[in-house]
Amino acid sequence: MTEKILFIVFSVLAVAGGLGTITRKNVVHGLLLLVFTFLNVAAIFFLTQAYFLAVIQILVYAGAIMVLFVFVIMLLNLRTFEQEEQTHRRQRWIAAALSVLVLVEFVVVLAGVTFTSVRGGLTPETMTDLGGGTKVFGDALFNNMLLPFEVASVVLLVAMVGAIVLVKREKTAGGATRAWEPGERPTPEALEEEV
Amino acid sequence: MVNPAIDLVIQLGIMFAIGAAMAMAFISISHLLSPRSTNPNKSEPYECGVVPKSDARAPFNVHYYLVAVLFVLFDLEAVFIYPWAVSLRTLGTPALAEMFVFIAILLVGYVYAWKKGVFEWE
Amino acid sequence: MSDPIAQLIFLIVKAILLPVLIVLFVAFVIYFERKFAGFFQARVGPTYLGPWGSLQSFGDIFKLMSKEDVTPARADKPVFKLAPYIAFIPAFLVMAVLPFGPVGGEPNLFGYRFDYVIANFDAGLVLFLAMCALGVYGVVLAGWSSNSNYSLLGGLRAGAQMISYELAMGFSVVGVMLMAGSMSLVDIVDRQAGNFWDWYFIPQIVGAVIFFIASIAELNRTPFDLAEAEQELVAGHLTEYSGMRWGMFYFAEYVNLVVVSAIVSTLYLGGWRAPLEVLDFIPGPIWLFLKICVLIFLYMWIRWTIFRYRYNQLMSIGWKVLLPLSIANLAVTAVVVSLVG
């Protein structure tokens, strides 16, 4: 009973945060609401006894990926960003149609699934006997999911190299990455940005 | 206090509530005690006495973005390492070799970033 | 009275007592910081309020509360008001997973089992890292929302610094996880049972030093306090804050200092355990408190002795020294653990 009430509370908060994220005009406000959603999702993971997953949800999504988003938003000029949003009014209808499609897809997929534990018999009690959820997760990851795990490292490597190549492009052309052209005199603002 | 998961949510929830309550108490007491006066000059951002010309939120050095990307990627690596560290004793030597391969692949990226001067700040 | 109800009462008592005691202790930590600063700089420090000025912090809190709370006109008001809360609250969730005495076992209080921890679960250590990660928001959002050049630069610098050192921190604790075979802080303390040579700071000396250095950067203290380098950035992300909102950031910094010291002692210095088994008759919370005091003194000593690093030096230390060292420490520990078993 308590579990159900808590679940409903956290899911309502999570959905509210999600709705807030897509309706805010101010990008940073939307982003903070998304962090709020992630924290509520983490609370739902706690309720399902997936403690490690819950903490990872906070550490990776709320703590790392969203920090990257904050940096990206600060990197872009917010003002031009808000203006661009006004010019793409027609995209709204395409987006609405696509989201209905995704919703139908979700419903169809979820309707066909019965939620039982994959390897059977992993009740909360047996999990505790096996040394907690984290241990069970570690055993599964390194025994059965070995290939996806090693592939993940290659994916991370590609992402790392890709980001460096994209950002460091100007460096090879000579001189450091700067906000102004080589011939131009730097404005005081641009100088201040060069921390 | 029966289901461990519900207990945990309540325990963490109480600590969150206490922290928030303390913070709110400090701010509201301060609201009762503090004076208030408005003045257009006072609400300007501090610029050592110079009148600010433009919005401070201008684009900044792209280097910060790169550091944030690398942070996310290494953080993900760490997340893979944690469950491995906990169950290394039961997993044995094969898991050790698997993790060394994983770390070695990512170290390639680390060395590349070093060579490309990502960690150099002017 | 049934056991669940007793546990609920214990929970409420613990959840109120622990934060209140820590916050009271913080008031004295701030006083001692100023006294030590005076001592290191051949001054006297605060002297007026209370005996030897010991009540100075309470006077300061009252002063801050009676100061005007100015919100700049150009600031993003909701975020500007939210940022102090984001800086303040995560430390309280870390207190929940912090063991300050024995957990489990026989009933020890009026026939009921009193656990000296608020929340015991198998990912407590990662919760601490996650809360560190959330702490970045307080600083970055404070800097962004103020809409002042100094604030923005301070917030950015602090954000980049904190995420860089978070990595070194995250990798250095893997050594402890490997040795303890657990991420629960309660288990980690239990594995360090015995005398002080059983504590993890001896086999994990490299990890402990990296963790300690990274924690200084996480706390934004000198020599890594570039976020508020007053000679260049006025007060960094705090430039536009005044009154109690500024006080909250200041206070959060010291609450974090106490909590991080407690985590360092839990991970590497045996937590609440006595240094020698014969001293076990002294209760656990007292030992933990003593270890916290020693570590806080160490943090203060470093703060008032070492100069602030330049920004490129700071990033080099984080990415080129601490990160590879912590990964090497991880690899060596893993090999030893799987060989010895």
Write up what this structure looks like:
Chain A has 195 residues and is an all-alpha fold. Helices cover 76% and strands 0% of the residues of chain A. Chain A has a domain at 1-76: Up-down Bundle (Four Helix Bundle (Hemerythrin (Met), subunit A)). Chain A has helices at residues 2-23, 27-47, 51-75, 78-87, 91-111, 124-129, 133-143, 146-167, 169-172, 188-193. Helix content of chain B is 66%, strand content 0%. Chain B has helices spanning 4-33, 63-86, 88-91, 93-115. Chain B starts with a helix and ends in a 7-residue tail after the last helix. The mean pLDDT of chain B is 81. Chain C has 341 residues and is mostly helical. Chain C is built from 13 helices and no strands. Chain C has helices at 3-40, 56-65, 77-88, 90-96, 124-146, 149-172, 174-180, 185-191, 205-218, 230-233, 243-268, 284-303, 311-340. Chain C is globular. The A-C interface holds A 26, 28-29, 32, 35, 51-52, 54-56, 58-59, 62-64, 67, 70-71, 74, 132-135, 192, 195 and C 76, 78-79, 82, 121-123, 126-127, 129-134, 136-137, 140-141, 144-145, 149, 152-153, 156-157, 159, 163, 182-184, 311.
Strand content of chain C: under 5%
Number of domains of chain B: 1
Kindly report the average pLDDT value of chain C: 85
- Uncertain runs of chain C: none
Assign a percent range to the helix content of chain C: 55-70%
Number of H/I helices of chain B = 4
Return the string of H and E elements of chain B.
HHHH
Q: Which CATH class of chain B?
A: Mainly Alpha
What is the string of SSEs of chain C from the N terminus onward?
HHHHHHHHHHHHH
Subunit arrangement of the protein: heterotrimer
Number of strands of chain C: 0
Q: Low-confidence segments of chain B, ≥5 residues, pLDDT <50?
A: none
The CATH architecture of chain B can be given as Up-down Bundle
Write down the domain tally of chain C.
1
Terminal CA distance of chain C: 45 Å
